[in-house]
């Protein structure tokens, strides 16, 4: 009779060996399956927030090239003002006396991307030109001619007492008078400004006016020495030139402006005079209440040249 303990021992060894082999095979198959699977891909980072589309008015207003100008946006409301005037990217736009180019930084890139045309009607030049204005003209032309990729190819003309057309007759879609009318009143050329804009505009073209606003009950100084002009007077000048009034906006209104400042509107930001124009600054002048007012109360008016 066979030895039961030997049989049992043999069976156990065979069972253990077959079990180990099975486990090894299972492990190998599991490993092969694991090798056949792709590793889980790392989650994708969320896309960066998109800025305004290039060429849009939002893009032009938010442009990094405006870093020094943008602090004035809460007072100047460029987006809302230009939309009120009906600005479109393919327009021909004439800005009268753009100064150092605060609005040009928006208009020129926007119009360049939209295949429009920006025209700057600069201060008058010639033998009788004001040296300070001539220097501003030179700096302006250098600045906005240097980067054609950004600003396109702005056109430069001139506006003054003896200037010719600011643009070929009937070619402009929009003319802009932006806080300049009081200077023309002082120089005796306000009527010429409206006439020149009317001539430059196409039938149906728009004149946009933004101007420091005198209270309606105040008497209008013919030369606007304090910088403020009555809204009714602006409408009268426009009507005399042939324009039709379209609409007014309060986007640039400021009810904090008392309009009785010691050095006129230039007491307020951004000029911040502390002494009469041309005199040395007064370090003892208290500017606190004028800083609280901010920039001036301004009318924003839209006129149209009849069809």
Radius of gyration: 36 Å
Helix share bin: 25-40%
What's the pLDDT, averaged over the residues? 88
Low-confidence stretches: 1-39
Q: Which structural class best describes the helix and strand composition?
A: alpha/beta
Shape: globular
Short description:
Helix content is 37%, strand content 17%. The chain has 307 residues and is an alpha/beta fold. Strands 1, 2, 3, 4, 5, 6, 7 and 8 form an eight-stranded mixed sheet that branches.
Spell out the blueprint of helices and strands.
Blueprint (H helix, E strand, L loop, with lengths): L3 H33 L20 H6 L10 H4 L1 H8 L6 E5 L7 H10 L3 E6 L8 H15 L2 H4 L3 E4 L13 E7 L2 H7 L2 H11 E14 L14 E2 H11 L2 E6 L38 H6 L4 E7 L3
Helix pairs in contact: 9-10
What does this structure look like?
This protein has eleven helices and eight strands. With 307 residues, the protein is of the alpha/beta class. Helix 9 crosses helix 10. The chain is globular, with a radius of gyration of 36 Å. The chain starts with a helix and ends with a strand. 34% of the residues are buried.
